[in-house]
From TrEMBL:
Gene Ontology biological-process entries: pyridoxal phosphate biosynthetic process; pyridoxine biosynthetic process
Residues that coordinate or bind a divalent metal cation: 172, 217, 272
Compartments reported by the entry: Cytoplasm
Cofactor note: Binds 1 divalent metal cation per subunit.
Signal peptide: none
The name this protein goes by in its record: 4-hydroxythreonine-4-phosphate dehydrogenase
GO-annotated molecular function: 4-hydroxythreonine-4-phosphate dehydrogenase activity; metal ion binding; NAD binding
Length: 332
């Protein structure tokens, strides 16, 4: 029997909740449910410290320079140890420059393993973008770094849950700049990548996509803006000519009601909050961030470093477990 390739879990910010989410899930037996082996990419000593948050004295066993095993009670987890941070200087909720370099190293190692086929995919815990940039790795975030390392020009951010999946044409952009940046080519690419990913990675034979307007009431025939007629409708028309089952532009104030009932496989949104407000209303704890358009599988938790919760043990593992589950399903 051929051994399954592992899913890699990058630890994220050593000062955030990532390490204790991993340990909390391990101790609760939540990682036992997965068929594929899991391998954490991070810092073994930081994980050991995270175990103390749950009154567990974790044991570390070193097999080689990078390969370690962390054991908490009756459960063990393989760890790729890429940093040796001084745990006394890595305070909960207080990220420092060494953490920034370490976060980037975890991501880059995992991407490289996935690209050469030694891992089935990667699941990422939250990072601090500002600290990473201060450490000399100049990218706006996970998505941009992954796209560059994979040699891909266009990727799509999708946020997903059981009831709703949304993909974004624009992401981290001021609302006043959205209409200036929107163009038919970008909208069409987002529709196309969403369609292909749902087919190839989610196993949906003929995805049904709803494409949203940017203005209230889909512009009300130009009364509230012309982006629908000028930019969005032409992209939908071209997508349909390629055999993509896309419709719209739909008014966002009503469409999500029908999408959440299962009438669409995904909703293509024009800007960040248009998609994330309804997504987080339905999937605040168990939402998953998926990067579409990469040659590798990458899912992520749908929350930040939660410095206010770091070291308390109170952070919810639901998003991490959902991200691992989705990555494993995508491998099938």
């Amino acid at each position: 029997m051929v051994a399954l390739k592992p899913l890699l879990i990058t630890m994220g910010d050593p000062a955030g909740v990532g390490p204790e989410l991993i340990i909390k899930a391990l101790l609760a037996g939540e990682l036992d449910r997965f068929e594929r082996p899991l391998q954490v990419v991070g810092d073994a000593a930081v994980l050991q410290r995270a175990a103390k948050v749950f009154d567990c004295e974790a044991e570390l066993e070193q097999h080689s320079h990078q390969d370690w095993t962390l054991t908490c009670g009756e459960r063990s987890l393989p760890v790729v140890n890429l940093s040796y941070l001084d745990e006394e200087k890595v305070e909960f909720g207080c990220p420092k420059l060494p953490c920034g370099r370490a976060m980037a190293d975890y991501i880059e190692w995992a991407v490289a393993r996935c690209l050469v086929g030694l891992a089935a995919g990667m699941v990422t815990c939250p990072i601090n973008k500002a600290i990473i940039n201060q450490a000399g790795v100049h990218f706006p975030g996970h998505t941009e770094l992954l796209a560059e390392r994979c040699g891909v020009e266009k990727v799509v951010m999708m946020l997903a849950g059981e009831k709703l999946k949304v993909s974004l044409v624009t992401t981290h952009l001021g609302l006043r700049d959205v209409s200036r940046v929107l163009n038919t080519a970008e909208i069409l690419q987002t529709i196309h990548i969403t369609d292909q990913s749902l087919r190839n990675q989610f196993g949906i034979a003929d995805p049904k996509l709803a494409v949203l307007s940017v203005n209230p009431h889909a512009g009300e025939s130009g009364l509230f803006g012309d982006e629908e007629e000028r930019l969005i409708a032409p992209a939908i028309e071209q997508a349909r000519s390629y055999g993509i089952n896309a419709s719209g532009p739909h008014s966002a104030d009503t469409l999500f009601h029908f999408a959440a009932k299962g009438e669409y496989d995904a909703v293509v949104c024009m800007y960040h909050d248009q998609g994330l407000i309804p997504l987080k209303l339905l999937h605040f704890d168990d939402g998953v961030n998926v990067t579409l358009g990469l040659p590798i599988i990458r899912t992520s938790v749908d929350h930040g470093t939660a410095y206010d919760l770091a070291g308390t043990g109170k952070a919810n593992t639901a998003s991490l477990i959902a991200a691992i589950k989705m990555a494993e399903e995508m491998t099938k």
